[in-house]
Amino acid sequence: MNWKVSHRKTKHEYNPSFNPFEFEVKEETASYEVKKAFFPYFHDPVHHIKLFQGDCIEILKKVPDNCVDLIFADPPYFLSNGGITCHAGKMVSVNKGKWDISKGIEDNHQFNLNWLGECQRVLKPNGTIWVSGTSRIIHSIGFAMQQLEFKILNDIIWYKRNAPPNLACRYFTH
Ligand SMILES: C[S@@+](CC[C@H](N)C(=O)[O-])C[C@H]1O[C@@H](n2cnc3c(N)ncnc32)[C@H](O)[C@@H]1O
Is any ligand 1 atom within 6 A of the Cβ of residue 72? Predict the structure, then answer.
């Protein structure tokens, strides 16, 4: 597979006097879906908070390079493929929505490369990204980060004291 990897620039044009809170998602040039504008569905001008809803790649494309300090992402795990999970103590099928249906490991990986590449572009040179995931997707995220030449600093494993029961009995634990 030829992965489409958009490498970050090796040298950053970084202006430290730039105020990161001043960046605006350019609402008038938005092209998401039917070229409708991006409107924040939450805006708190006192604390400089704006929340946008839409395709993350389309929205990130409106953000200038090198202006974000920290990104936290919880991308799709691509779990909804007829498998089972435990909900409220019962075995149920996993169906989180269309967005969670796997398109195959290669397309899932290209999706991770695409959004991580956009995140890398908007991050400041000393910015950081946190990504949460499950064993289904986290290895692709790690590989994509290596392809994009991110420096991986930490792997954090969440110890859930109240983890769901091990229904399939094929894992050491959940
Ligand atoms: C693992 S869930 C994250 C759930 C979230 N942490 C929460 O507690 O609600 C992944 C989320 O990514 C969203 N998503 C999927 N594809 C997306 C895309 N292209 N752009 C933006 N969000 C997307 C889904 O709607 C879903 O809410």
Answer: no
